[in-house]
Write a structure and sequence with these properties.
The protein is mostly helical and 344 residues long. It has three domains: 32 residues, no CATH class; 172 residues, no CATH class; 37 residues, no CATH class. It is 73% helix and 0% strand. It contains 14 helices and no strands. It is flat and about 65 Å long. The mean pLDDT is 82.
């Protein structure tokens, strides 16, 4: 439900609240949601600027920076991190601005791979054939030390500041690690893509379960598990979708898993499950249309009937939602019931 000022004014016109309460209530709600990420201009500028700064030191790092040498890269990263820490303290303690503080804190964590790469390069511990900018492009087991250091720094920053956006670099690093683990555990198996997909699937599932565990234990209104859900679902769904199968039964199971993602996303109010589940379901229906029933005249009619049936199911759900929801939730564990109540 989206609460707007116009809705409050309509409530006042119907006598639900007094007209003089509208301004005070709206000001209270605006202040209460100031630290909740949304599509307001201020927050867009915060995240745009932060992602540009983070991208400059990660994804968009140029080869020219290699000329600074190992110690040069290390001290530049160290100086940037010190500035980022100061800004985090300044925004959070003095300005009471949690979102900019979270962004600058994430910037500090994102500098850890560069600092460690520079240190290893300066000490002669770095193997030939890889440069820092490839960290975000190529899968390689040699990145694992940088990833572990980033996870440690992210955990330390989260312990110190408790800001949700700090989970973002941790989640990205876990996603990277899910891809780099295969060559580390099994050697440089460049042709074993099925094994990579398998590792990605299970690693993504572990990330989803970790996010769910945090969701159950979190009583704060801040959304700490968001980024873990995002990259966990991305790793899981990508690994699942890229697995090769010639069996129609396996493809149907894939479709059912995607439908389950949609159900889970609706239950937990997590759009990322619904988006990827919807894409996977649409891909399976496309497979049926273009491969299995490509010469069938009835398939479009049957599909239309199914679509209308789903719409009717939605109408029935809307009419009896409260009763159905209450009965279903009565059988759930207490922590899960509390989680769903918070999501409502």
């Amino acid at each position: 439900m989206k609460l707007t000022r116009a809705l409050l004014e309509q409530a006042a016109q119907r006598g639900v609240i007094a007209h003089e309460q509208v301004d005070a209530l709206w000001a209270f709600l605006a202040q209460h949601s100031a630290d909740t990420p949304s599509f307001r201009v201020t927050h867009i500028l915060y995240y745009l600027g932060g992602l540009i700064a983070i991208g400059a030191m990660t994804l968009f790092m140029t080869l020219g920076w290699e000329q600074f040498g190992g110690w040069g890269l290390f001290f530049i990263a160290f100086a940037y991190a010190a500035a980022g820490l100061w800004l985090t303290e300044y925004f959070l303690r003095r300005q009471q601005l949690a979102i900019p503080a979270g962004i600058t804190g994430a910037f500090v964590v994102a500098l850890v791979p560069l600092a460690l790469y520079g240190l290893q390069l300066a000490l002669g511990w770095w193997a030939e054939g890889r440069v820092y900018r490839q960290y975000h492009i190529y899968i390689d087991w040699r990145w694992l030390m940088m990833e572990l250091a980033t996870l440690a720094a992210g955990a330390l920053m989260l312990w110190r500041y408790r800001l949700p956006f700090l989970v973002m670099p941790v989640a990205v690093t876990l996603w990277y690690m899910s891809m780099d683990l295969t060559p580390f555990l099994f050697g440089d198996l460049d042709q074993s893509w099925e094994l990579r997909h398998f590792v990605s699937l299970w690693f993504g599932l572990l990330m989803i379960l970790l996010a769910f565990w945090i969701d159950l234990r979190t009583r704060s209104q801040r959304d700490y598990p968001f980024w873990l859900y995002l990259f966990g679902v991305l790793a899981f769904w990508s690994g699942l979708s890229l697995m090769h199968s010639d069996s129609e039964w396996n493809k149907f199971v894939y479709f059912c898993i995607n439908l389950l993602l949609i159900v889970v996303g609706a239950a937990l109010s997590r759009r990322v499950f619904v988006v990827f589940g919807g894409i996977g379901s649409a891909a399976y229906v496309g497979h049926l249309a273009y491969s299995v029933f490509k010469d069938s005249m009835l398939f479009p009619f049957i599909l239309t009937a199914i679509g209308l049936a789903v719409i009717y199911l939605g109408i029935l759900w809307q009419r009896h939602e409260q009763t159905i929801t209450s009965r279903l939730r009565a059988h759930l564990p207490t922590p899960l019931r509390e989680l769903l109540a918070r999501r409502d």
